[in-house]
Amino acid sequence: MTQLKNKHFVLGLTGGIACYKVAELCRALIKEGATVQVVMSEGATQFITPVTMQALSGRPVFISQWDSRESNNMAHINLSREAHAILIAPASAEFVAKLLHGRADDLLSLMCLARPIDQVPLIVAPAMNREMWSNPATQRNIEQLKADGAYVLDVGAGDQACGEIGDGRMLESHEIVEALKAHFTQKVLKGRRVLITAGPTYEAIDPVRGITNLSSGKMGFALARACKRAGAVVTLISGPVSLPTPDGVERLSVVSAQQMYDHTLSKMHSADVFIATAAVADWRVSAVVEQKIKKSAENSAPRFDLIENPDILKAVASSPRALSGELYCVGFAAESENLEKLATAKRIAKGVPLLVANLGPQTFGLDENALLLVNEHGTRQLPWASKEDLSAELVKEIASKLAN
Ligand code: C5P
């Protein structure tokens, strides 16, 4: 939640059906702790009313450069001077063309041209019909806009309002929010390759039953997002969870501990950092029963032989690259008591420089957690906060160790 807190955005809407998504985007930004000043082109007001945008942003909307509410009558100057960024969403093909020619025939284009170019980034979320998007004129304009220093977001692909299918949809509001968060995150892991395990594993007993645990994967997924925002190339190896893949992250989905082990070992050679957040099942049954085990009056409850799963973290931490310091390993410990004592012992047992301990039953499934960081010098408590904020803090800790 920290990246956009107290950030002030000028949200510029231009004419396009994607305006309907911007109501949601405006709410999402405010929920993140940002403030939003809406500016609309005349075209945008054909698609969504200023009343709606005023109600959602909590501020009067500006449309005209002749708006006399500003005491000096210079809305085009005043509005951008207090902004951390101008976000044009949706950016129509016409508005993109206008921007790159430096045209200034309405308040929004005038304000973009008059912004202090080194202090107020211009972020553009294009939205248009697929033919308009792929037209060489538009593509040329987009390239020039990027070359002029604007941050142009990708477009989505899929069904379009016109009934056609293809590229040109405006990104969804959660994707735009994620792009903004990444934009405002220091790139402390730039160029680093991070490998993360997350979620539970599932060890089959028969085709319908298995051994698993209460891990939701939320901590590992939040960490993957935080690493990505900080500039890392992230691979996330996840057990069975129902979470969306973080934007820009490579995800490998696995079921069992053995599969997680195999994938991790095949990926670890190219990683600079390994973070083991997964709650890997310690044991599996020695032989999976092929058909569903039936209960009957004569049969007593079945008994299973359990065998230990390979310890993924230990295997990675004892590899030559980890031992030489080329691969920085971070372990997690989900305990139910005695956090400091157990975590200190676990860090040594696993052979990792950093171990992150948490009280599993207090946090499983939640968006919040509290972490105890344990390294060779001692411990540091990160108090109860969102997993998103804790991840950002943990990323800084890891980055500082890599820098040393
Ligand atoms: O031994 P324990 O399961 O408590 O250790 C927790 C840490 O070890 C976590 O980082 C977890 O991802 C990792 N681990 C692992 N493979 C296992 C068991 C745990 O990577 N088989």
Question: What does this protein look like?
Answer:
With 404 residues, the protein is α/β, with parallel strands linked by helices. The protein has 2 domains: 8-183, Flavin prenyltransferase-like (Rossmann fold, 3-Layer(aba) Sandwich); 193-403, CoaB-like (Rossmann fold). The protein has 15 helices and 19 strands. The strands form 5 sheets. An 8-stranded mixed beta sheet has the order 12-11-8-13-16-17-18-19, sandwiched between helices. A 5-stranded parallel beta sheet has the order 2-1-3-4-5, with helices on both faces. Strands 6-7 form a two-stranded antiparallel sheet. It is elongated and about 85 Å long. The two termini are 28 Å apart. The relative contact order is 0.09. The mean pLDDT is 96. It binds cytidine-5'-monophosphate.
